[in-house]
Hints:
Elements: E1 10-20, H1 55-72, E2 80-81, E3 89-90, H2 96-101, H3 105-108, E4 124-126, E5 130-131, H4 133-139, E6 144-151, E7 158-165, E8 171-180, H5 186-201, E9 216-227, H6 228-231, E10 238-243, H7 260-269, H8 271-282
Antiparallel strand pairs: 1-8, 1-9, 2-3, 4-8, 5-8, 6-7, 9-10
Helix pairs in contact: 1-5, 5-7
Amino acid sequence: MNSKDRKLFGKIIFQGAVELLTGMHIGASKETVDIGGLDQPVIKHPITEEPYIPGSSIKGKLRSLLEMKLHTEGKIDFNRSMKQGAAIMIHVCDDWDEAKECQVCRLFGSSAKSSDQANFPSRIKIRDAEFTEYSRNFIMKETELKWENALDRITAASNPRQIERVPAGAEFEFGFIYNVEDINQLKEDLVNLLSSVELLEDDSLGGHGSRGYGKVRFHFSEVIAKSVDFYFGDESKKRELIKESWEREKPVKEQKFKTASEVKDIVCEKLDELKKIFIEEAK
């Protein structure tokens, strides 16, 4: 078999909402400097002009936390800088076969270092998270502006700046899609994904986390597994591991959604049932 052989047995879809417990800042590029304007605006959708959470922000944070965990255990090294000459080091496998066995790179992807090597595509896709209906209609009328100030330790001169934040209480609808490519690695991948979500809840999302920004909670409304055959007409090849009703006019904290820890327990408990819908494709 070609070492770069790649299969797809199906997909597992996670859906729900991210609730902000403290104000969050995910920055946008600033093309112009306006007198009296914001120093640090948040990223907004170009059409709706509503704040959103880029999928790349969630994915990057989850990856970094999993990298830190595995590096602490001595299982991976920080072997590549994010940019040429940059001091920010990350872990990326250079070889396809190495990436396939790496808990980080097979889940979040790896990019080849040279043209004679191959990229390993990410098994997880994370959609941009946009406002829930409740957040749009009842919570988010406008963002908040937070003043912060840096003081010169010698002269006491101040350097005030204005930071835009999405306020606590706002909610964003998220979607994770996991590609089932190796049945034997299924449990480890899903446990790593959901454990990283738990780590993120006790960390921060976006900028200025050390100053209290970006504390979030993930609420899972659905976890649905579909084999490839389901997409081609076999409706028996679908399992709803979690399917909670979502009253869109109410906040997610009042819904009977699952935590990341509860989802992880359910996935592990129903792993054999989960594998059954993919098993024929895996033979």
